[in-house]
Recover the amino acids of this structure.
């Protein structure tokens, strides 16, 4: 779920059961494709699902999305950190436990029984905070600085650092205002490392003279 949230720039309410008002994506909202061929999630083998090259999520009950809108991504090329592989693994897991189509993607089943356990935002927060603690201060931030909401910002920053047009990022993240700018952190070192040099060279310029600077005021006449 962390992988899906990062790549799809998801809000917590779209991918975990944050509270009674949350409407996360469900099994029925997922579609997997091999090239242009749709894979039937009820009939395809596990191996076929894991060879999918594209995944789409359809907005059905999500509060912040447009009903019927479809967002899709292709494989990242990484066997683990890939939105397609992550979705396929969730589908395989849920159908192994005979989960109905309306089951949220962020659901677990205990080994002792078929009792359902919801993945909460606090579970995601705890997991990524543990990862930050394990990696250390080289990241430039502390475990307390990240929460389940940070994944949306992290995905937006990754796109920005990859030179993706901010307007495209806004479309992918479904931002309807300039709120997106809050997510594009100027603390990202690769983004900012060349700007001082660019400003130094770009700051060498002259201004075109204003007409009032060239002519005495008495000689200024309207042009027709």
């Amino acid at each position: 779920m962390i992988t899906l949230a990062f790549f799809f720039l998801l809000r917590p309410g779209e991918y975990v059961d944050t509270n009674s008002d949350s409407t996360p994506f469900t099994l029925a909202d997922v579609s997997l494709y091999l090239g242009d061929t749709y894979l039937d999630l009820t009939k395809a083998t596990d191996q076929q699902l894991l060879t999918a090259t594209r995944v789409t999520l359809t907005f059905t009950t999500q509060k912040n999305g447009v009903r019927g809108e479809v967002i899709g991504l292709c494989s990242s090329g990484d066997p683990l950190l890939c939105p397609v592989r992550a979705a396929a693994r969730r589908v395989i897991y849920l159908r192994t436990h005979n989960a109905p189509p309306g089951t949220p993607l962020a659901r677990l089943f205990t080994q002792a029984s078929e009792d359902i356990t919801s993945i909460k935002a606090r579970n995601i927060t705890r997991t990524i905070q543990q990862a930050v603690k394990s990696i250390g201060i080289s990241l430039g931030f502390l475990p307390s600085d990240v929460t389940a909401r940070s994944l949306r910002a992290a995905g937006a920053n990754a796109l920005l650092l990859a030179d993706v047009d901010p307007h495209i990022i806004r479309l992918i993240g479904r931002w309807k205002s300039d709120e997106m700018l809050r997510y594009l952190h100027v603390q990202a070192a690769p983004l900012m490392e060349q700007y001082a040099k660019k400003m130094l060279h770009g700051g060498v310029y002259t201004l075109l003279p204003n007409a009032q600077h060239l002519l005495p005021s008495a000689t200024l006449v309207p042009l027709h």
